[in-house]
Amino acid sequence: xxxxxxxxxxxxxxxxxxxxxxxxxxxxxxxxxxxxxxxxxxxxxxxxxxxxxxxxxxxxxxxxxxxxxxxxxxxxxxxxxxxxxxxxxxxxxxxxxxxxxxxxxxxxxxxxxxxxxxxxxxxxxxxxxxxxxxxxxxxxxxxxxxxxxxxxxxxxxxxxxxxxxxxxxxxxxxxxxxxxxxxxxxxxxxxxxxxxxxxxxxxxxxxxxxxxxxxxxxxxxxxxxxxxxxxxxxxxxxxxxxxxxxxxxxxxxxxxxxxxxxxxxxxxxxxxxxxxxxxxxxxxxxxxxxxxxxxxxxxxxxxxxxxxxxxxxxxxxxxxxxxxxxxxxxxxxxxxxxxxxxxxxxxxxxxxxxxxxxxxxxxxx
Length: 365
Ligand SMILES: [Zn+2]
Description:
This protein is α/β, with parallel strands linked by helices. The chain contains 17 helices and 7 strands. The strands form 2 sheets. It has a 5-stranded parallel sheet with strand order 2-3-4-1-5, with helices on both faces. It has a two-stranded parallel sheet with strand order 6-7. It is elongated and about 70 Å long. The N and C termini lie far apart (60 Å). The mean pLDDT is 89. The site of zinc ion has 8 residues, from helix 4.
């Protein structure tokens, strides 16, 4: 049976976890000294390894290996947790309808001792989606946690969690994974599955992953299922040319007053299936990113982008006046507002391109 790369290459030990050394260090130290906590809060954007790390911690707490580092990834408990069949490790998706029922059940069963292993571990995914009722119920448990129970809350939006819960958890922040780390690992994976991949194709995949292992692997997955020798062209085709690269390219054209090239880029993107108003909305975001980069010391704290992509945008932003950015955002937003009522939104976006690319060179002169 075919299994997604993201699943088949999920880390089974701490050593294969990507780009979260700071967290690895804390957890390994706690495990070695027997000082693990009762409640953890794993924060970070999607695909940075929160759930994976939660499972690693659950395994380490229940691993039966006598020598070497835990989790070993091969003992019966480690394997059973990896397969999701270990009764003492429970995963609750707070975003699902079952969330409330699961939390209620959790409260009823949390006081029973573990059956299979040494620790009961509750992994609560999308914890910020817990309903008020569920959060209150959960808080009661958190106030007096029974022995041998560990809670791991994973969330992309910690600010949405009540302070009463936050204050009871050890918070660990997951970073976006650097392109360098992704490239190294993805190259190994390609070698393992016997697929050739050109370095520039690999680079493009990792740039578009924007620090998310999951997004990167799912793109790689689509590339390798289409070809046994992946080229940059293959990746561009699959991306529908609407990754960061596209916005950098079309913005370059507009800023330099190359109206024809800009219109051609738009035509190509649309021919590849991107919807025109979605494209314009994402393009407004791109201009916003350029603006933020011009005015903030550490844009990585504000923007949802990898450091490498921020560098690329910084290069583009350095030659642009704020008036130009403002003008482009205004033009595109106006076109988008009009497009809502228009049977032919594309024409409005094209008109905006003509205006922006005529005005930009004058403004930046
Ligand atoms: Zn083990």
